[in-house]
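Box S1 | Example of a co-folding query
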Amino acid sequence: MPTVRNWQLGREMSYPYDARFPSRQFAFVFNINRCIACQSCTMACKSTWTFNKGQEHMWWANVETKPYGGYPQWWDARILARLEEANPAGQVWGGAPADARFGPYGVFEGTTIFEAAATTLTPDSARVLGYLPADDEWNAPNIYEDNPVGKRGVRNQLDPTGEQLPEHKTWFFYLARICNHCSYPACLAACPRKAIYKRPEDGIVLLDQAECRGYRKCVEACPYKKSMYRGNTRTSEKCIACFPRVEGTDPETGGEPMETRCMAACIGQIRMQGLVQIAADGTWAEDRQNPLYYLVHVAKVALPLYPQFGTQPNGYYIPPRWVPRPYLRQMFGPGVDQAIDSYVNPSRELLAVLQLFRRSNRIIDRYEIQEGPKVYEGSLRGRKVELFNDTVIAFGRSGREIFRTTIEEPIHVRTNAHANSI
Ligand code: SF4
Ligand code: SF4
Ligand code: SF4
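Box S1 (continued) | Returned holo structure for iron/sulfur cluster
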C-alpha cells in the first residue's frame, strides 16, 4: 500500500492510493458550545436533497446527543471497538505537539482504519477496517436526544454538586455532523468501482450514481457512516457539500462562493464553512487571515473529529467545555485541553473571529480587525478580563467586503407599533 502524510496524526500512514491534494479544500468549524439541537440544519439538508422515495432513512446532516445518541446508532462506539481489537497497544498519542502545520497534536502511535485492515481483514478486501450497520440502526436519528450521563450506577438522578465548570458531573452535548469530505476518504478507498472521487478544485467528495452498483463498500468503510444506501435505486448516496452553492453558481450571490444549506440555516450560529488553501505537501498553506486557518492552526481552538481513524477529516469542532476531558480526548485527540483553555480565555482576536459565525451566507475568505475602545474591565475565574469593542470585517473570494460587525452586539428595540409581532 502507498504511504501518505497525515498532518493531523503527525506521521506517515498507509492508504490504498497515492496522495493527491486539491488546490482548495472544503472545510468547516462547528462550535459545539453553541449548538441547541434545533435540527434546523438537519431539516435544511433533508428538504433540499433527501426528500424523495427511498431516502426516508437518510439524514446527510444530523445532530445527535452524546454520549448515548448516534446516527446510525452506536456508530462511533462500534468502530472504536473494532479499532481497539485490531490495536492491542491502544489508540495512544505521543511526542510533543509541533508548532508547525504538521503534527500540531503530537504523533498518533496507534493504528488507523487503513493500517488495521492489513492485519484483520482477508487480503481480498483488506482496504479499510469498518462494519455495515444493521437496517434498524438507521431508523431513529434522534434516539436518546437530551439523555444525560451521570454517576455510574445512579439512575434518574442529577449529580447534586456537579454543575460547576470546569466539568459537569451529569452531562450531554449535541454533536452536529455531516460528511467530512476527508483528505484520505475511506469511502473512496473502499469502492471497487472507483465510483467515488475527490474534486481537485475544492476537495469535495462525490459519489457517481452512474458508476455505483450498490455494493455498499463505502457504507461499510466510512468510519463516520456518512455514505448511505438507497434501496429503491440500489445505489449509495452521500452529502454533496451543496456544491452548486460552494461553486458560486447560486444566482443569489452573483458568483461569490456561498455556504451550504445546513451551514446557512444554523440558528445557534455554531457553524462556519470555507475553502482553505492546500500546500503541495497536503498541509494547510499558511493563510493567517483566513478565519478557518486562524481557528485551527493559530488559536488551535478547533479540532478534528476522531483524527485517529486516519481519514484526515475536514470537519473541526470547538469542544464543549463542560464535558469530562477523557471523553473529549478520545473524540478530538490530545489538543482538547489547549482548545478549551483558548475558548474560555479568548484572546482579543479570537473574540472577534467568533463574531464572524453566521453573519452572512457567503464564504469568508479573509478578515481584518479594526481596534475599538475598551468597554469592560473585570475578572473571571481569577483572571483579568478586558473587552474591546473591535470591528471585524469579512471579505469574500472576490476581495469585496461581505459585512462588518462589532464585538458588542447591536441591540434592536422593537417599536410599539410592532410590539406583538414576529
Ligand atoms: S466522512 Fe465518510 S463519506 Fe465523507 S469523505 Fe470521509 S470517509 Fe467518505
Ligand atoms: S453540505 Fe449540503 S448536502 Fe451536505 S449535509 Fe449540509 S446541506 Fe446536506
Ligand atoms: S441548526 Fe445549528 S444550532 Fe441548530 S441543531 Fe443544527 S448545528 Fe445545532
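The domain at 3-348 is CATH 3.30.70.20 (Alpha-Beta Plaits). The chain has eleven helices and 19 strands.
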